Amino acid sequence: MTLHVDESNLIVDFYLNLANQPSGLFDFVITSQYSHQPLSLVAAWQSTNDRYTKYQVTFPIGFGDEHKNGIYNYSLAPIGGEPITYGLVKIITEPGGEMGTVTYNAGPDAEERVADVFYRPNY
Fold it and tell me: Which of 50, 63, 98, 100 has the most CB atoms in a 10 Å sphere around its CB?
């Protein structure tokens, strides 16, 4: 499953292959595979049929500005209950935030360095 989190609209709908699920509120817990830090969100049941169930989750303000792109483990459970499903979710944020990289400049002596290459064939 892929969720696109746009900072201008933090309410995201998603569908799971769970048929005829009861209505209510659910704990939607995402855990980063990079930092292993869980984030618990509330998912609201929207609709269901014989093939899938639609849920809606609201991400916290600023989530789209942080660099949270990546693969997460997720679980969905009724509030205070046992998980009914779990799996992987790919989260793409917009605008995505800063990468946190710092440019490295070795100085003019090293940056302008040119190597001489000699080739001697073996006969």
Answer: 63
Please state, in angstroms and rounded to a whole number, the distance separating the CA atoms of residues 4 and 13.
Answer: 10
Q: Which range marks the domain in which residue 47 is found?
A: 2-111
Quote the pTM value.
0.72
Contact (Cβ atoms closer than 8 angstroms) between residue 14 and residue 3:
yes
The two three-digit tokens of residue 38, written as one number: 């869980």
- Ranking 2-11, 26-35, 77-86, 111-120 by mean pLDDT, the lowest is 111-120
What are the angstrom distances between the C-alpha of 56 and each of 41, 50, 82? Answer: 10, 19, 19
Number of structural domains (the chain) is 1
For residue 68, give both structure tokens: 């949270």
Domain membership of residue 82 (yes or no) is yes
